[in-house]
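User: Could you check the structure of this?
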Amino acid sequence: MPFQGLALPKANNLPVNLGMVLIFAAALAVPSPAPMPTPTPAATPGDPCGGAHTALLSALNRPTIGFSPCAVKPRETVVEAGYANQSGGQAMTIYPQGFIRLGAAPNLELDIAGPNGKFDSGFGLKYELGHDSQHAYAIDALYTLPTGSAQYTSGAPSEQLNFDYSAPLTPGMGFGATVGVANSAAQALDGHVARTTTLLPSAVVTTLLNDRTQLYLEGYGSTRLRPDGGSLLGLDGGVQYLISPQFEIDAELGRTITDIAVSHYAGIGIGVRF
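Assistant: Sure, the predicted structure tokens are below.
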């Protein structure tokens, strides 16, 4: 029994109807266009200070005299310590050169300067003003108290403010600079003690030998050492090696020249990230 309402094709219309069926079937066989992919957000610019975790070779302050512009990342702690022996001029041994850095918030770290053995200890902070994929800028503030022994303490609180900057020179070389201003008590050659303000510039060039090994050469100075003047020029260099992303060791040699003495020093140290 034929279906109601369905007319059978006439013989002379069969080729036309067959063509329509083939066209319809071909249309069904063509797959639907794939949906356009959702655009991927632009990648976040690289972070010369390490991205999600603090990069020790970029962020450590030691073993240089200048400061790194890289703040410790939030919820991380970096501990720096070292040992140095100075000869000529005022011979001394300096240890443990402790410096504890706490990542308190994005771009902000809190610092504890110490324990420093015979020398004064204190506290401070670093604020990373910003960075792009290659450059970084920061300010440091440090306040120390006269906690050291009588021979090495400044005898009064001191304050220091730094501006820090870093930039690449080539794909394997970098440049960093710190300009600091310090106010502290110091003893003049005639024995009287007074507060004095000094400018503390430094500049460093680094070279990566590989992902774990970095060499550096630094020059630094002080425009005033005592209430009655004095100046200092220094040069140091060394090597830093990452045993792991969380553990760094370093060794350095240095020389300082003041208006009254010439000194040499050698040191070793570590940087640890928790």
